User: Which sequence fits this backbone?
């Protein structure tokens, strides 16, 4: 019922002014989620990371009247905070409070977003944090996320998506408080704002939020440019060289399908069958981990999915107008790393050639039809999905998926696989020690080998021979090696 | 014979029924009513209806973690079993198990810590009988080949590898190894790398491990969401009722009293920010006195985001980019740890001294009443707000079940929180945060 009310509201208000996604309920917790459709894609070319640092200044700094310490002191007894998340096209400010504290919490939330303190000491602290998150959090400690972000930066090189949302070390070092203020002034506009709220609030409270945020400028000074990912002529690889025990991979290519497009449900079924995130049933997981014991897990994606190492379910409000198909191979021991890459591409090739079997199609459809309930099991998640639905212009995500799946046929899935997936013209990102050795092993037809600690069935050993020589289309001249210190520098 | 066993069974069921009750302790922080029932075989069932339309979560807690790994060279086996439990049975081989989970639209996973292994599944309510049948079958009848065992040990090594780029993992390994001499908290839940690498050779031991610990007396089933306790119990009787009680009791070594401060240093081979962990031997988890609650409040008041030290070192002087403390909540006495990450290695000595001085200071001074009240409020709101869906309710209860095997402990613990005075907090700090029980681990990265 609530969606019947919401859809006309969204269609009337879309683009011109602030939008609202409201999910009233009986819970004593009120969840606020204010999403601006601005983000790293609107970073000036010489200031990657500016959108994120701007959001950090609002959520992690003081207000006009309160220092950051005073903000923290006031939030502390409420066990509440104001978090921010910045992706290419969305900037999210979120938090939740017990209804007892709603008024006090909202006063802080409002002041942080509408009356920021812009203090130099907050700026310095948050800028340092951003630089350290690149140098240590990503380059130092997280080979898997590093590989994924390197892949995406390569796929979108030369477009507004061509840099990681946290930015680069050198650009952050030069960034000033004035840059941040300027970004805020230009892009924090009513036309970009989706006000999301869920829980036990009153209609008057929602009116109050809308009235407060109506003080923002009406329109974005420089709206988001359309994203046209560059064509990939032939498969190429980038190996990030660092001192590490094992080899992490991500590879893929942009696809012309996003939520709401006709082939989205078909590719969603493909994604689930081939590599449902953190699930043991996917084809990649089965063939790489379950049968061969190579690594911890292997998954496929048709939408941006950051922090996959921590999250069991997809994050919300990282919606993008351009998406990429990606395969994530968790770290494999160096001696079998080349084989592992060939195996993943070999499985992708099999998927494209053979499609999804009927029984798997039926099972996956049944899974997804129910799994959407699990995805939206909290008010917070339900709200996040509803905001994304507003962005993509689709109905409630649950009913969108259930309705689409009910009509979907196996032929449609296989046609979508053949249309949108491929094994040539890919970009492969690897994070590895001894990059030259890896390069030699992944070009041409190998052969790459694997040794097991226990006997394997004859059919697996026979398949391994084929996999070991499977040509993934990489030529020596298309493999670039970069030292880790130069990445996002 | 048949008659006798049926009679015996009826008596046992009657006795078990006597312990069924709807908990209603005096001060309620845990906002849900629940039932707690013991089956004749020793399995415990906790059912908690929550407002989660159509969704059910099943968490099966096995009170076995790395704490139970008592034999030399056999660390990491509790965690290995978290993996092996997905290797199937005759009735539900892995492919069929996966297929059934898929048909239920389930989100399913497992995790291991020092005190527990927990298997959890969240799904649509109509699939509860099927899920319980599958779970009971694997807990009772898990069967895997030598080949499957060796293959899965590769996945465990893969898990170690994916964590190994993070110096935090190494810090934990060195901290536990340095701080403990005899108790099994000496090793992390992942286990020592050499033991993980040796796992493929330990098939026979793995079967022994399963036989010891995957028994009903070690297990508690937590069912939350859109459920009726009256309907859940017969389903659990039917599916888990035949599971045989075991007889093994692990002889967990008692840690001797630490006699003086200890130190260790990690040279990390790549560039990274320097880190310091200062740890003290703390108490075991308890809801019977104020110690657990007092140290938890101490960790928040003295090292939390609005503490003086945090504000000084992170917000004003900006010498650290992270600071925090964790109070122990384990079955046996565990570490109270303070962790900091520095921006510049030359500040290491000063930061170390500053943290030590702060600990000492609060052994003399009393925390202000208003600050203590703020923490109490925060604890209560934080706890309540976390319980916003069937999954997190079950997850939260599982953490406490690992410790005391009952959700009753939650309200008992929060009663202790509510009664805390500034003197209680000072007393806990004086008792546990002492030099002779201290271990300091530092880590510095390679120069560029």
Assistant:
């Amino acid at each position: 019922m609530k969606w019947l009310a919401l859809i006309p509201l969204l269609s009337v208000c879309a683009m011109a002014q602030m939008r609202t996604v409201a999910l009233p309920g009986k819970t004593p917790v009120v969840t606020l989620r204010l999403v601006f459709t601005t983000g790293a894609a609107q970073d000036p070319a010489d200031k990657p990371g500016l959108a994120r640092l701007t959001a950090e200044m609002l959520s992690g700094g003081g207000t006009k009247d309160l220092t950051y310490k005073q903000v923290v002191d006031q939030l502390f007894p409420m066990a509440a905070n104001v978090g921010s998340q910045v992706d290419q096209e969305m900037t999210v400010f979120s938090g939740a409070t017990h209804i007892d504290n709603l008024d006090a919490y909202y006063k802080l939330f409002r002041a942080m977003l509408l009356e920021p303190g812009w203090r130099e000491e907050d700026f310095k602290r948050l800028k340092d944090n951003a630089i350290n998150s690149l140098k240590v959090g990503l380059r130092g400690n997280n080979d898997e996320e590093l590989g994924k972000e390197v892949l995406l930066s390569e796929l979108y090189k030369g477009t507004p998506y061509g840099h990681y949302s946290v930015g680069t070390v050198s650009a952050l070092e030069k960034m000033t408080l004035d840059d941040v203020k300027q970004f805020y002034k230009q892009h924090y506009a009513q036309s970009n704002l989706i006000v999301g709220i869920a829980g036990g609030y009153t209609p008057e409270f929602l009116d109050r939020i809308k009235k407060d945020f109506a003080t923002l400028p009406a329109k974005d000074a420089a709206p988001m440019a359309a994203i046209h990912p560059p064509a990939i002529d032939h498969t190429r690889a980038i190996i990030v060289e660092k001192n590490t025990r094992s080899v992490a991979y991500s590879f893929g290519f942009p696809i012309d399908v996003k939520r709401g497009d006709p082939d989205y449900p078909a590719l969603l079924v493909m994604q689930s069958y081939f590599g449902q995130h953190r699930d043991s049933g996917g084809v990649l997981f089965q063939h790489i981990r379950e049968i061969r014991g190579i690594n911890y897990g292997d998954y496929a994606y048709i939408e941006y999915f950051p922090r996959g190492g921590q999250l069991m379910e997809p994050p919300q409000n990282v919606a993008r107008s351009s998406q990429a198909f990606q395969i994530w191979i968790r770290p494999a021991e160096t001696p079998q790393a080349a084989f592992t890459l060939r195996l993943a591409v070999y499985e992708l090739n099999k998927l494209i050639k053979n499609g999804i079997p009927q029984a798997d199609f039926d099972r996956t459809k049944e899974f997804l039809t129910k799994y959407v309930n699990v995805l939206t099991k909290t008010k917070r998640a339900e709200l996040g999905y509803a905001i994304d639905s507003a962005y993509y212009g689709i109905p409630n995500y649950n009913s969108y998926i259930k309705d689409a799946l009910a009509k979907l046929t196996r032929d449609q899935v296989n046609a979508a696989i053949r249309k949108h997936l491929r094994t040539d013209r890919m970009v492969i990102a690897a994070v590895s020690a001894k990059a030259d050795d890896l390069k030699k092993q992944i070009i041409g037809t190998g052969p790459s080998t694997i040794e097991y600690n226990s006997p394997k069935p004859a059919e697996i050993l026979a398949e391994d021979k084929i996999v070991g020589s499977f040509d993934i289309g990489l030529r020596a001249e298309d493999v670039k090696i970069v030292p880790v210190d130069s990445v996002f520098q | 014979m048949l008659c006798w066993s049926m009679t015996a069974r009826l008596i046992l069921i009657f006795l078990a029924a006597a312990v069924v009750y709807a908990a209603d302790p005096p001060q309620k922080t845990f906002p849900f009513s629940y039932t707690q029932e013991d089956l004749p075989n020793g399995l415990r069932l906790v059912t908690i209806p929550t407002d989660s339309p159509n969704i059910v979560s099943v968490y099966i807690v096995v009170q076995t973690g790395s704490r139970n790994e008592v034999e030399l060279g056999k660390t990491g086996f509790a965690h290995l079993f978290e993996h092996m439990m997905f290797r199937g049975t005759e009735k539900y081989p892995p492919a069929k198990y996966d297929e059934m989970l898929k048909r239920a639209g389930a989100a399913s996973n497992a995790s291991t810590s020092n005190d527990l292994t927990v298997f959890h599944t969240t799904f649509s309510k109509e699939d509860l009988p099927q899920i319980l049948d599958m779970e009971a079958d694997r807990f009772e009848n898990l069967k895997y080949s030598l080949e499957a065992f060796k293959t899965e040990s590769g996945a465990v090594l893969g898990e170690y590898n994916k964590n190994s780029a993070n110096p935090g993992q190494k810090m934990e390994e060195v901290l536990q190894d340095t701080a403990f001499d005899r108790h099994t908290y000496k090793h992390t839940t992942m286990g020592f790398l050499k033991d993980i690498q040796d796992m493929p050779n330990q098939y026979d031991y793995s079967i022994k491990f399963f036989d010891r610990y995957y028994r009903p007396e070690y297990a508690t089933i937590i069912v939350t969401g859109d459920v009726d306790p009256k309907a859940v119990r017969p389903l659990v009787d039917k599916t888990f009722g035949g599971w045989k009680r075991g007889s093994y009791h692990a002889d967990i070594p008692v840690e001797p009293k630490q006699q003086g401060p200890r130190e260790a240093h990690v040279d990390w081979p790549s560039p990274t920010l320097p880190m310091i962990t200062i740890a003290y031997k703390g108490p075991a988890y308890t809801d019977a006195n104020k110690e657990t609650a007092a140290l938890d409040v101490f960790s928040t008041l003295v090292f939390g985001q609005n503490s003086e030290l945090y504000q000084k070192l992170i917000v004003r002087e900006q010498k650290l980019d992270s600071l925090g403390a964790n109070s122990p909540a384990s079955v046996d006495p565990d570490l109270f740890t303070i962790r900091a990450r520095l921006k510049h290695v030359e500040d290491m000595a000063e930061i170390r001294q500053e943290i030590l001085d702060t600990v000492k200071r609060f052994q003399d001074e009393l925390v202000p009443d208003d600050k203590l009240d703020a923490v109490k409020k925060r604890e209560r709101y934080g706890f309540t707000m976390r319980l916003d869906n069937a999954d997190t309710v079950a997850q939260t209860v599982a953490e406490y079940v690992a410790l005391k095997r009952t959700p009753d402990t939650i309200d008992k613990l929060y009663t202790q929180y509510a009664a805390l005075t500034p003197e209680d907090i000072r007393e806990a700090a004086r008792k546990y945060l002492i030099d002779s029980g201290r271990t300091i681990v530092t880590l510095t990265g390679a120069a560029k």
Observations:
- Chain A has two domains: 2-213, 236-486.
- The mean pLDDT of chain A is 94.
- Chain A touches chain B through 78 residues (CB under 8 Å).
- The domain at 2-213 of chain A is CATH 3.30.830.10 (Cytochrome Bc1 Complex; Chain A, domain 1).
